[in-house]
Amino acid sequence: MAAEAGLLDRLAQRVDGYRLQLRLGEKGRVASVGDGIAWVYGLPSAAAEEILHFEDGSRGMVFELQSERLGIILLDPEANVASGSLVSHTGERLEIGVGDGLLGRVVDPLGKPLDGLPPYDADSFSALESASPPIVARDFVNRPLYTGIKVVDTLIPIGRGQRQLIIGDLGSGKTSLALDTVLAQAGQGMKCVYVMIGQKRSEAALAIDLLRRHGALAYTTVVVGEATATPGMKYLAPFAGCAIAEGWMRRGEDTLVVYDDLSTHARAYRELSLLMHRPPGREAYPGDIFYLHARLLERSTRLSAEHGGGSLTALPLVETEEGEIAAYIPTNLISITDGQIYLDRRLFAAGILPAVDVPLSVSRIGGKAQHPRIKEEAGRMKLDYLQFLELEVFTRFGTKLEAGAEAKIRRGRSLREILKQERLNPLPAAFQLAWMTAFNAGLLDGFEPAAVPGALQEIQDGLARAPLALDAPRDEWLARMKDWLAA
Ligand SMILES: Nc1ncnc2c1ncn2[C@@H]1O[C@H](COP(=O)(O)OP(=O)(O)OP(=O)(O)O)[C@@H](O)[C@H]1O
Ligand SMILES: [Mg+2]
To answer: What is the CA 460 to chain-centroid distance, rounded?
Structure first.
C-alpha cells in the first residue's frame, strides 16, 4: 500500500512538473500597444495579476482575461514594447520592497525612486494585492490616533486601525487636513505613507516639500501616481501604499496611510476598465468598483497581540461635487469606512477652518479609543454644540429667543471660534483636554470673542511650563485652568 502511495505521489509530481514546463515554454505575442496597456495573444494558462515578461526586458501585469486574448497593464511605460514582440510567463505577482529604507523617500507605485536618489534597500517584499488579515488575527481599535486638530480629536476621534473618510468638495481643505494629521504623528511612534493619485507634479512637489520642511518625511514615505502617469499606474498607487504600510504593520508597528484621493483613483480605474473593454455600469464605472475600494480598505486593521499588535489606519479622501455626498463613489466609500469627516465649502467660505461639518461627521469606533477623560469632556461639549447649531437656525428667521437660548447661542459661537485652527499647528492631546475642561466649566465664558485665542494661548503656555497627565483628576485640571486664566 505504502509503495503504491509513494508511486502515486511521484507520478503526481511528474505531471505537475510537466504542466509547469509546458507553461514556462508557452509564449504569447503582443497584438497592440497604447495608453499604457497591451493586448496579448497566446499564453492560455496566464493567471489574473500574473507578471509577464516582454522581449525587451520590460514587465506587464495581466489585468483582463478573455478567451482569446489578455489585457496587460504595462509596468515600464517608457519601455519599447511593440506589436509582434514575444511575451512569456514569470508566474510571479506584483510586489514592492518594504522596510525602513523607504522612510523619507518618494517612489512610484512600483517602488522606483522619484526623488533622484538611488534605489532604497528593502528588508522584505509585500504583495500589492493581498488578502486582508483574518478576523482571528484582529483586535479591537482601542488606542487613539491624534490628528492634532481640535475639532477632530475631540468630536470625531480616530483610533489606530480605523478607516476614516475625509470627504468634501474641491478645495475644501481635504489635503490640508490629511497633511496636518501626518505632521501630528511626529514622536507618536507612527510610520506614515502618503499616497498621491493623479496630482499635478507641482502640487505633489509642494506637499512633499511641506512634509520635508516640518520634519515629517523622517517617518513618512510618499507614493506618487502623478496626473500624467498611465491609468494603470494610478490604479496601482494605493495598493502600493497599503503594501508598504503592511510591511511595517507585520513587524508590530503602527502605520497611517493617506489615500489622496480615491475619486481620482476610481476615475483611473474606470479609464483602465474602458480601455480593457470591460462593460461599463453606473456612471460608466465598471461593476466591481465597490469591490476595488472595499478590498483596499479592508486591509486596514489593528492586529492582535499574538500577531504583533501592529495597526494600519487609513484616511481615504474623496471629492464631492456641490456637496453631494449621496453620489456613487462617495456613498460606496461611506459604507466601507468607519466614519467620515465632512468638509463643507460653505463653512470654508465663511472662514470656519477647518471647515468640518460636525453634525454630518461621525466616527463610529474612534470613541472607544479616546482617553476616558477626553471622552467625558467631549461628550458634554458635543451636546452643547449640536444644540447651538440647531438653535442658530432659528435666529436666521429673526425669531425672538428666550434668555436661556440666547446664552446657549453665545456659548456656541464662542466654541465655534475655539474650534477654528490654522494649518500646520498640531496640538497635543493634553491641550485638548485642558481647553475642553475650561470650556465646559464655563471658565471661557467671561472672555470677549476676540480675547479667546489669547486665553487658549495662556492654557497652552501653562501646559508647556507644567505638564499635567491626562489621568489627573478633573479638579486638578480645573484648578490649573483657573490659575492660568486668572493670570
Ligand atoms: N485650516 C486651514 N486654515 C487656513 N487655510 C486652510 C486651512 N485648511 C485649508 N486651507 C487652505 O485651503 C486651500 C484648499 O485646501 P486643500 O488643498 O487642502 O483642499 P482640497 O480639498 O485638498 O483641494 P482639492 O480638492 O483641490 O484637492 C489651500 O490653499 C489651503 O491652504
Ligand atoms: Mg487635495
So the answer is: 30
pLDDT in tens, 442-474: 999 988 888 999 999 999 999 999 999 999 999
Distance CA 401, CA 323 (A): 31
Condensed to tens digits (0 to 9), the pLDDT of residues 286-300 reads 999 999 999 999 999
- Domain assignments of the chain as residue spans, ordered by start: 23-93, 96-368, 374-486
Strands 190-197, 254-260: pairing is parallel
Which ligand approaches the C-alpha of residue 343 most closely?
1
Any residues with Cβ below 6 Å from ligand 1, and which?
168, 170-176, 319, 353-354, 421-423
Residues 278-283: contacts with CB under 8 Å, at least 24 apart: 278/64, 282/328, 283/328
Q: Would the pTM count as exceeding 0.85?
A: yes
Nearest CA to ligand 1 atom 12: 173
Which residues neighbour 16 within 8 Å (Cβ) at sequence distance 6 or greater? none
Phi (first) and psi of residue 311, to 5 degrees: -145, 155
Report the pLDDT value the prediction gives residue 18, as an integer from 0 to 100.
61
Query: Please, which residues bridge with residue 191 across strands?
Result: 255
Distance of CA 84 to the CA centre of its chain: 41
Q: Given the C-alpha cell 509546458, which residue does it identify?
A: 22
The CATH architecture assigned to 23-93 reads Beta Barrel (2.40)
Looking at CATH, the fold of the domain delimited by 96-368 is given as Rossmann fold (3.40.50)
Residue whose grid cell is 533622484: 116
State the distance from the centre of ligand 1 to the C-alpha of 169, rounded, in angstroms. 10
Architecture of domain 374-486: Up-down Bundle (1.20)
Cα separation, 249 vs 133, whole angstroms: 11
Distance 174 CA to ligand 2 centre (A): 5
Residue 354 Cα to ligand 1 middle (Å): 9
Pocket test for ligand 1, best of 174, 176, 340 (most atoms within 8 A of CB): 176
Ligand whose nearest atom lies closest to the CA of 166 = 1
- pLDDT(376) > 70: yes
CA distance 50 to 93: 5
Strands 339-343 and 362-363, by their bridges, are: antiparallel
Using CA positions, which residue lies closest to atom 26 of ligand 1?
171
CB atoms within 10 A of CB 375: 16
The residues near 479 (Cβ < 8 Å, ≥ 6 apart) are: none
355 Cα: distance to centroid of ligand 1 (angstroms): 9
253-280 mean pLDDT: 97
